[in-house]
Sequence to fold (161 residues):
Amino acid sequence: MIHCRPKTNTYAALILVLLVLIGGLTYTLNHFATQRSFGLAFYLISAVILTFVIIMLMVKMMAGYKFIAAGKDKITTRVPLKGFAKSYELDQVMVWDEDKVISNKREFKQLTIAFDDQLSFTISNHEHVNYDEFVNYLLKKLPQKKVSALQKAKSSKKKKQ
Fold:
């Protein structure tokens, strides 16, 4: 079985950034409560911005914490924070697509799989381990379900009209 799970290094870095932001918010609120050497507008704006960034980062982390496994002609998806787990047969896959973008001389890949119950699952190579093995498994088992470049071009023309 091929197991794709979130990379530990990615989440460790995000948690470190989150702790720094929470520390900055705590320092700002403590400074407001004890010294008040800046104007009220500074404290309000900085607290709102820091809180917003903290919440957005936490949502990003929670949304990306998902697992997918493939093998024995099945695909199993799990989203632990939602308490969601489901297993699909390969014939329940409607379509799958891999998008590639080159940014800062690095290739970013994102795989999206759509199932027949209208659920879709997305993973990326920068956030999940065993990404390439999972894509190779899909190429080997479901090459006919991959969205082709011609289909992408047709759908983009329809959107423009």
Observations:
- Residues 95 and 151 are 12 Å apart (CA to CA).
- The chain has two domains: 7-64, 67-160.
- The first strand starts at residue 2 and ends at 4.
